[in-house]
Design goal:
By secondary structure, this protein is mainly beta. The chain contains three helices and 39 strands. The strands form two sheets. The protein has a 24-stranded antiparallel beta barrel. Strands 1, 2, 3, 4, 5, 6, 7, 8, 9, 10, 11, 12, 13 and 14 form a 14-stranded mixed sheet that branches. Strand 8 and strand 9 form a beta hairpin. The longest helix is centred in the N-terminal third of the chain and has 15 residues. The radius of gyration is 27 Å and the shape is globular. The chain starts with a helix and ends with a strand. InterPro entries: Carb-bd_dom_fam9 (IPR010502), DUF5916 (IPR045670). It holds the Pfam family DUF5916. This is DUF5916 domain-containing protein.
Length: about 725
Amino acid sequence: MTTKKSISLSFLIVILSLPLYAQKKNGAFRLNIKKTSLPITIDGIGDDKAWQDTDVTTDFFMVLPMDTGKANEPSEIRMTYDENNLYLLATFYNTTKGPYYVESLRRDFSFGKNDNFLLFIDPFNNQTTGYSFGSNAAGAQWDGTMYDGGSVDLNWDSKWISEVTSDDDKWVFEMAIPFKSIRYEEGVSEWGINFSRLDLKSGEKSSWTPIPRQFPTASLAYTGTLVWDAPPPSPRTNFSVIPYVSASVNRNLENGEDTEFDKKIGGDIKFSLSTSLNLDLTINPDFSQVEVDRQVTNLDRFELFFPEKRQFFLENGDLFANFGYATIRPFFSRRIGLGVPIQAGARVSGNLNNKWRMGLMDMQTASVEETGLPSHNFGVLSLQRRIFSRSSIGLIVVNKQAINYPQDTDSLRTAFPKFNRNIGLEYNLASPNNQWTGKAFLLKSFAPKKEGNGITQAAHLEYKSRKWNWRIQEESVEEDYTAEVGFVPRNGYVNISSYLGHLFFPEKSVILSHGPKIRTSYFFNEKLERTDNINLFEYLFSFRDRSSLNLSLSDEYVELLAPFDPTRANKATLDIGSKHHWNAYMIDFVSKPQSMFTYSLGSRFGGYYSGGNRTSLISEVGYRFQPFVSLSSNISFNHIHLPAPWNNTEFWLIGSEVDITFTNKLFFATLFQYNEQSKNFNLNSRFQWRYKPASDLFLVYSNNYLIEPFEGRNWALTLKFTYWFNK
């Protein structure tokens, strides 16, 4: 353990020695906003008199393909406000003629596949949190909360209105955001702000403030300043009630059960505790309308991660879910309500001021009589304080506590431990110019028995410039560390990993950039004996039309620490302690997003466990009849050749989706998934009518079948109605 601790301490010393104080990079870019008493009609035309007396920004900087000058495509932004709303008018002119590229009219569209405009606001001037709003050229809205200085959580929805008009020469976006729909610090007259435009006709991404091309335009480290003529209006109390009623018909054919009819009533309550802190309550929540998981082929030795999609867990979700790394999470909300009804929940989250953020969550689940599972209470506390310019220190406490704990048998107490707790500290590094980022954290678990009490720690440091990108990381997870409400697929290891990449930028070439990238990852047991590693050499090409090509060569070694079936097809297992070594080659190509027909192709050829071979082919194809219909299909094929008793194993995974957006308020999507590895075929169809802002009617149908023999497993039809009452 001394070695592991010294490594972490060295990382922390390096991180803290970096220059972390500096003035705001683009603080000189200032846009004045003045109050208006004139009416504004949101129609996408922008001919109201109120717009004639506003400041206007016209000079945007090019970010992509190169960040060396002004944008070629002209843009204009105007802003004003009144007692109730913040208004914005954006006009985007076209010097490059051609059709607009939009994927669909669906809200929260894919950024890289649409001509679009995005607004980024930082009301607390902390350069780490904020809001994003925008639209594509067909009028589909985009909104989300911002965290970690440049990431956007699109699962957040709020009430605001916008309209878009377009012709051959320009497209115009007009919007109104109610002040009560966002959180900000009272009395502050300067906000961080930036504007981003993506124009696929010209292949140009631009920004109001200059941003290095290696960073997203969402990077809050590079925002300018919105200067109010007076502090924005004091936010009024925001109180929302969002009830729902649902009715469903379902049948479990696999267990021979009869058709059941179920009806539910519940809802959410939102209440603003302050100008920047919100209370959310949920009673008898229902998640029947949530999009189903995309199935994947699993040839990994460890559990796969599937993202959270339930709305209640997502707003300010970074406060809870981003502690640690992707494979070391002390809190993973999908552990709550997994096959168990959630009775109620409460959450307080948001900014306490421009330095402090807080998240407090409490959820209660029901008991399951058939298995003896007791009801559980889940509590999470997260605190985050900004230090230096953009860095932060965080604390997390996670508690899972059984209620009405079984007392009858030792087997029940073993199957359902009385409690599991985690406490952790984390330091997040973000330099003023965003070139240096890093993290260091320490977690301790507590459980009724010794084997549940353990420690995990990790740290990394990353540097990113236009031409160079490197990262070094270390982590260790003790065998006794447990996180029952987290995601930690592997225990009892020490890992050292790193990568180094360099880019070349040829002039006057169809290739925008190219360069090598070397990745390494070595795993050791707690005695620091090597158990597995992967070395990967890549060469990456980015083309000016936004297509890309990656060529890779891998060298892998594995010493198995548990029995493992390398086909994941319920065949024989390889022995513990057996050693395996192989090389493989990968090719991946992604086509340009401007085409109506888009595709990606991926392949993997080479060795596999026990001297065998594995060939994998993966493709994604799509066609759109913009902006109303989008068709897509994902196809994966694996051929595994091993000695007896495995011999040859083949399986297909096919997923096809039809997405129809009749208007920006009326949607229909159907997803088919055929998975030979799990011997499952399923269908999921969702109809959604957003008849008022943030109020919906859903009709959802799902059906699951076994492939062999082809027979039904279960099906369900659900009708759900929600309405947002806002005061």
